[in-house]
Amino acid sequence: MAEDEEIPPPASFVEQATVTDDSVYGEFEENWPDCWGRAAATLDWFDPYESVLPADEPPFEWFAGGTLNACYNCLDRHVEAGAKNRVAIKWESHLGETRTYTYQDLYREVNEFAAALRAQGVEEDDVVTLYMPMIPELPIAMLACARIGAPHNVVFAGLSADALATRLESADSAFLVTCDGYYRRGSAIFLKSKADDARLKAAHDLEEMVVVEHLGETAHLGAGQHTYDELVDAHAGAEVDPVERTADDVLFLIHTSGTTGEPKRVEHVTGGYLAHVAWTSQAVLDLKPEDTYLCTANIGWISGHSYVVYGPLALGTTTVMYEGTPNYPEKDRIWDLIEENAVDVFYTAPTAIRSFMKWDTSLPASRDLSSLRLLGTVGEPINPRAWKWYYEHIGNENCPIVDTWWQTETGGMMITTLPGVKNMKPGTAGPPLPGVGARVVDGRGEEVPANEAGYLVLTRPWPGMPLALRHGQRWGEEAAKLDVGGWHYFTGDGAKVDEDGYVTVLGRVDDVINVSGHRLGTMEIESAIVDVEGVVEAAVVSVDDADTGGIHAYVTLETGVSGSDDLRERIGSHVRERIGPIATPDAVVFTPDLPKTRSGKIMRRFLENITNGEEFGDTSALQNPEIVGELESIVRDS
Ligand code: ATP
Ligand code: MG
Known about the structure:
Radius of gyration: 24 Å
CATH architecture of the domain at 516-637: 2-Layer Sandwich
Shape: globular
CATH topology of the domain at 516-637: GMP Synthetase, Chain A, domain 3
Structural class: alpha/beta
Helix content: 25-40%
Largest sheet: 7 strands, mixed
Strand order of the largest sheet: 3-2-15-14-16-17-18
CATH class of the domain at 516-637: Alpha Beta
Bound molecules: adenosine-5'-triphosphate, magnesium ion
CATH superfamily of the domain at 516-637: ANL, C-terminal domain
Distance between the termini: 38 Å
């Protein structure tokens, strides 16, 4: 496969794909914004909306006048349509135990828990915080909240008691659902005690706590604390009418990953959000009700909300969830899950793909992955070498790959190829989806020429937009400075667009490296480095020296590859060739690991601190805080 090659989608895929006609782009253009009625049509509405988008300036009231219930759309309508015995959730525990919920099973348990929450005093619009690992009770609790119109606020279970306390306060949430604990890589983590800690730390009252007994060790229960089973048993057989929500009513709150700074709170609404994720699940992931689908995202992040829970369940698909990590008990866990469940569609992150490459390429080869029809990635740019590995070793050159660019703030996918329509270009996300307005502009807000770097802005509202943007608030400091003319949202990412309108994301604007007045995107340099044989991951940062400036690269290697000067030389020359001499790293540091957020993204600011001999701040947001000290001594001793 040559560099910059365009790869058409496999014919066998196109034959069966839901969206195969290129005219969909034109139709969205001609008929904007009413074209988004297609997304709304994937849902059942109680009252139909009066207008898709009444005005083209804030407030943006998507599907104004429409009412619906997200839980009804994910459960009741499938049960009513005769799919009650289809599997909704297939779950595999850390120890390999499986649980299967049909749509009928899920309907029953969600109703019982919804009744229980009500009995605990949860009313419509009360925020319920869910601090839970990847167990079935998490989506059950989310859907139960949605059923009674109580926005949920999921906090990733790996976050600390402090982080939970902050998020309880920020959401003004008096209700918490958690569990006694769970296993991670063989050791027990006691979540309930972290939750108790947060309750003491939060400067506000937590009234009720529900505890799922997942480890089976009866947790100590204080006042206002109940076990999940006790509540569900007390409401056995209960049915709760789904509350009629307006399209604009909040479905949930969530925080961004906090890769570049403090996590930001985002609120998503019922109508636009659900329509956006259901439509993109259908058009981009090509999900069909008869499919079995695996997304490796944790439900604690937006990707898990949109594409483990709401998108696939709204379409009546079977969604596979697993507890634990992809390399426990063995490094072929994911391939095992795909084979065992005959998974049709697989959606994961580039960081996971790079780990799979690092572990052992023969592992996927020893499994039958022929059930796969489509592959997807999200979270970071995927460099062409990893893309190619994914395409060949996992997809057997038979599955299109969708590289989906989106954010917590966008709710759902925004920039990616429609897999049955567009050619793929490895390393490039693709054109904006039909109906999405995206442009790359310079500091004055003017569109930059093709293939030149600039700021990625979204120039049209979209159904999955969050509440604050609907109301016309502007986000981000840079946003204020860009004058794009008309409404826009600045994404915080740098990007370039090619002649065919394909967008390549170059990095976060906060991470831009300035070398002698040239602004370089971190992701572009890193992508060039990881294309070098033997390299797994790379992070580059700028040297804070007014005279010299410069770039330092931190690099991890495949098992068995050693960090030699020869490899440093190869990295340098590859970057020179791909981007230019200006981007060549002045130093290459080999390291066993890179500092990462809990959602698996590289946190460059600690590397900057180390490079520049600065104090580094609080490392508690990292999944591997120990690496910071280790790296500091590697750099000091080198
Ligand atoms: P914070 O906003 O708190 O710093 P975050 O941006 O990491 O955290 P998310 O909303 O989870 O939080 O991540 C969205 C970001 O992830 C995007 O803005 C982009 O930088 C990156 N991203 C996601 N998907 C892709 C992709 N397919 N290609 C390139 N970058 C991507
Ligand atoms: Mg962000």
